[in-house]
Amino acid sequence: MRFVIILIIAVLCQQACAKVFYVSFADGDDTHCTGLASRAYISGDNQPCPWKSVAKVTLTPFSASDSILFTKGETWRETLAPRSAGVAGNVITFGAYGWGAQPVISGADLITTWPLYRGKTYRATLTT
User: Can you give the pLDDT at residue 99?
Assistant: First the structure.
């Protein structure tokens, strides 16, 4: 009987202890923010202090049942490679918050400047 009670408490704690992390390219800060917000944010009462980069998400170990939410309408030109995956039945989830188009995580670099090289040939410098 004790084992069943301990198991129930462990499952409830795991679900209650799950955290929601926020990521916003426009409003985030990897240095001073925890990525967390209180549950009151869902009702609009408390703004999150989101991270800025996908790199911060990649470097952070998460626990089972945690969620990472990216701001809708934003694009990150980084690669997402999470360090943790949760456990069967309590996975780590990735989603979106806010309004607009779904967030885009693309490892592609955006090239916006194409100076004339010679003749009718243009080229761009790309740092990798």
Answer: 93
